[in-house]
Specification:
alpha/beta, Helicase, Ruva Protein, domain 3, four-stranded parallel β-sheet, 4 strands, disordered N terminus
């Protein structure tokens, strides 16, 4: 992971993988990140991870289970409850942690199976929040970098100040700008980005 003013590097005892370079840590997700670093302190060998979709929640969970030999249930709140119940028990027996990624945590997530409900009630929860300014800017930069593009500082500031701040918007905005720049054969600049976002109806003409 590249280290910057609004980022922290992964700890030395957590070997880096390709996925780690994509998980930018700021105040919006640091609590969840630290929760996995301290998994030996969990009261049970399982945890629930919540957060907005596209927030990197599955990326964080997968990176963790790959290291410790655990098991991941994505969209756990819509999975078969019997299967999840047995996976929870197996995690306690084997010592290999279970990570359940879900849109909601108990009590909002309320299984019908009483035994599973009881187990989830004692399972710790980690949450990723909506992106803060630092994370939103870093995600925009990352999505542009995925396309082999570098966004100028003034254009990045323009996007972070005017776009609705959520994970999905960061992806959609970069895609809209890239398509516009290709169609117009325009370089990535503030005027290009402004026009692209107006055409995509992601900002108003007065922006």
């Amino acid at each position: 992971m590249k280290q910057g003013a609004d980022q922290i590097a992964l700890p030395l005892d957590w070997p880096q993988s390709d996925g780690d370079a994509r998980f930018v840590v700021t105040d919006a997700n640091r609590e969840a990140f630290d929760h996995f670093r301290k998994f030996s302190m969990w009261p049970v060998k399982a945890t629930i991870l919540t957060g907005p979709r596209r927030s990197g929640r599955t990326l964080l969970a997968r990176s963790f289970v790959e290291r410790v030999g655990g098991r991941l249930f994505d969209d756990a709140d819509s999975r078969d409850e019997e299967e999840l119940f047995h996976a929870w028990n197996q995690a306690q027996d084997s010592g290999r942690p279970l990570v359940m990624v879900a849109d909601q945590a108990p009590p909002q997530w309320s299984p019908r199976l009483p035994d599973l409900k009881t187990r989830l009630a004692v399972t710790p929860v980690a949450s990723i929040g909506h992106p803060d300014d630092a994370l939103f800017a870093a995600l925009i930069q990352l999505h542009f970098a995925d396309r082999g593009l570098h966004i100028p500082a003034d254009a990045l500031r323009f996007m972070t100040e005017r776009l609705h701040r959520d994970y999905w918007t960061a992806e959609r905005a970069v895609e809209a700008v890239d398509r516009y720049a290709i169609a117009e054969r325009a370089r990535l600049s503030l005027p290009t980005i402004r026009r692209a976002l107006i055409d995509a109806r992601m900002i108003g003409e007065a922006a």
